[in-house]
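Backbone Fold Data
Goal — fold tokens
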Amino acid sequence: MLNLVANNSMVPEHDAVPGRITAGPSGRKPRRKLSRRNIIVYGTLIVVALYYLLPLYVMIATSLKGMPEIRVGNIFAPPLEITFEPWVKAWAEACTGLNCDGLSRGFWNSVRITVPSVIISIAVASVNGYALANWRFKGAELFFTILVVGAFIPYQVMIYPIVIVLREMGVYGTLTGLVIVHTIFGMPILTLLFRNYFAGLPEELFKAARVDGAGFWTIYFKIMLPMSLPIFVVAMILQVTGIWNDFLFGVVFTRPEYYPMTVQLNNIVNSVQGVKEYNVNMAATILTGAVPLVVYFVSGRLFVRGIAAGAVKG
């Protein structure tokens, strides 16, 4: 009897109880939080973040200091006494050539340039991309090739011909002429994005709409547009950033009274009259870059989704 008990005690559990198997640890082996790989990855990310954030910190700190504190020379020290006078002067009092109204005039000029340029270029490019992706009209491939080639032509090569064209049209030196230039130059890359995005949508939706008798514009407005919010956000961010930050076209195709904000900023920073006010220059720089930053941070998640969907398909 004792031998039987001893023998039974040595029987594995899955043999003693039929159908019952003791499972060991499963799944991936947990990683150590302070592994060499994590240290390298997070260390690199921290260094890169500091590399980009340090200049921004210096700009903000300097813009909140008075000139006596700036002359001490410690640019990394936080302001001992915060003042917003440099911001007020940069917006409404700094001299940009013959005018001393700050960046306010340039800001509204940039708004009048950016808003119509973004709306028109995105509207036309979205229709172009939709037609190239779903309506195989004659010459579509040639048209698409011309647009793609146009995206890689250096702007500087085309400045003089465009000046002549705008002069003959009677819009050279006006905001209308600059809007036309930004709209045309934004067309190739936006058309490519929209074409790739629409080509990645289920083709069955388009075919089903065609069977139901829907035409070109019905399919575009009722089927394609409701599904295309991410790529429209991408196009908006690209255009707002490119147009708002543009300096070359603004200084070439407009007159001083129509200069955008970037040209006004250049005039403030490079002014040689009086004392160099670094706090005003920093405040003016931050004000100029605020609009693209706000647009990106508000819609950054949709921007990533749209880039992933519209830039690698087709």
In short: Residues 36-83 form one domain. The two ends are 78 Å apart (CA to CA). The longest helix spans residues 104-134.
